[in-house]
Amino acid sequence: ADVVLTPEAALRLWTDLDRWSTFVEGFARTLERSSDWPAAGARVVWESTPSGRGRVTEKVTEDVGADRFATMVFEERLVGTQTFRVVESEGGSRADLSLEYRLTKYGPLSAVADAIFIRRAIRDSLRRTLSRFSVEAEEEAGLR
User: What's the CA gap between 86 and 2, in Å, rounded?
Assistant: First the structure.
């Protein structure tokens, strides 16, 4: 997604837990957070909306860098690494969000379930999150 903020400002917005409800797909509320968030090793536990992912724990894998922020994600059905990358571009930044994961349920049918249902749902959710993030960045920049 194109974002009207500098990479530094985009990373600040991305790691602001108080703003997640405005852009993170399915986010309902924060249950726990480390006082040193978003430092390496810090974690947040949040709950999704009723039709969402359930309880999600994210643990920061490294301090916020100049161009990215990564967390280990733990959910009932999957474990993975989510990475938010942002690079400077004309008019602001270009943001990318990815989730590399493995399923922890579904047994021998996990590959089939992933290919048919889960991968597309995750991709669509990440896209909606980035789209909402772009709108929130415009709000942050005073353009809305």
Answer: 9
What count of other Cβ atoms lies within 10 Å of the Cβ of residue 27? 20
Nearest to 24 by CA among 63, 65, 82: 82
Residue 78 CA to residue 122 CA, distance in Å, equals: 11
Q: Which of 43-47, 100-104, 114-118 has the lowest mean pLDDT?
A: 114-118
Side-chain-side CA neighbours of residue 57 (13 Å) = 11
3-state helix/strand/coil string of 4-38: CCCHHHHHHHHCCHHHHHHHCCCEEEEEEECCCCC
Average pLDDT (111-115) is: 87
Radius of gyration in angstroms for the set of CA atoms belonging to the chain, rounded to a whole number: 15
pTM for the structure as a whole: 0.92
